[in-house]
Amino acid sequence: MSSVNNRPLTPAELEAFGNELDALRARHVATLGDADARYIRKVEAAVRWIGVAGRVLLYVAAFSPLFAPLLLWPAGILGALLLGLSKILENMELAHNVMHGQYDWMGDPALQGKTYEWDIAGTSESWRKTHNFSHHTYTNVRGLDDDIGYGLLRIFPEQRWHPFFLFQPLIAIIFALYFQWGIAIQDLRLGRLFLGKATVGQLWKQSAPVRRKVTKQLLKDYVLFPALAGPFFLTVVLGNLVANGMRNVWTYVVIFCGHFTADAETFPKECVQNESRGHWYLRQLRGSSNLTGGKWMHILTGNLSHQIEHHFYPDVPANRYAAMAVEVRQICERYGQHYNTGSMARQFGQVVWRILRHSLPSKPAARPALVAEAAH
């Protein structure tokens, strides 16, 4: 339960709150242009060339026993790190933001939100459904946002406890290591099979796009690229495994820090009935958490270090969030609303505590409506 006290807003204040945040968005959208286009193209180029450097170094490491055995570990480690960095940049700052339609205005076919396909096991089509629509529309609304615990973890006291959750500290670690696979199967809702709401045949048919994408990813990282190293393929396989693991764990930490800290709230389904723009902003604010840090923190998190701003403006280029955050925080302060931010160590520490604490039995907590003044 959050210990934050937010000042109650009158209906007029709530409307004004929403209007100010809308106006901020309009000002930034009106000035989108060459600088934003150059930025995302630099990111695109960085993803490509850092990835190439990483893969070349993995081949250097693979063939090093033939000409320079001492290069094996340095080249292998650096190659895996660079490839992992490329995958993190592609996943966070390029793919995620492009798929939100942040750069559709450029008219570049390679940067269109509805057609971009990213470098993970899950399909972009599935992500646009579960994330862009369900999560961003119903952020932290119980029963509508499947990202609350991803069907595996009890993060909030409002979630009903089951004995299965006793294992969630271990499950959370496994989920972090294989995060892309959890995302890949999220929309399949495998729990329906155990509840008798779907058959194996139905799920097999529904999973066809995911199976095609998974096959493509496995062939690329663990068959085709390693095959180029011939008998020294194992070094390349291990390098790709480390790189994918880096991307999985980093993405998991960033996303969990953005949604499951101590002050993050969940909401009942009733709160979205006839929800006004001001109410929507208020719910996004109270269900999101930011991370403090410098330029590279923001880039490597895909600017999800500005999770509040991302939830307010998911279709605005993320390189604008740092500037927008200054004004968003000022607006929140004027209206007496808590702006949840902190270091990654602090925020993730709260996430870990939630995972541990709510693995144990407790009665489901009953939160009040979003806020008393937000009742419709």
From TrEMBL:
The chain crosses the membrane at residues 46-64, 70-89, 164-185, 222-243. GO terms for molecular function: oxidoreductase activity, acting on paired donors, with oxidation of a pair of donors resulting in the reduction of molecular oxygen to two molecules of water. The keyword Ligase does not apply. Residues 72-341 form the Fatty acid desaturase domain. GO terms for cellular component: membrane. InterPro entries: FA_desaturase_dom, Fatty_acid_desaturase. Keywords: Membrane, Transmembrane, Transmembrane helix. GO terms for biological process: lipid metabolic process. The keyword Transmembrane applies. CDD domains: Delta6-FADS-like. This is Acyl-CoA desaturase. It comes from Stenotrophomonas koreensis.
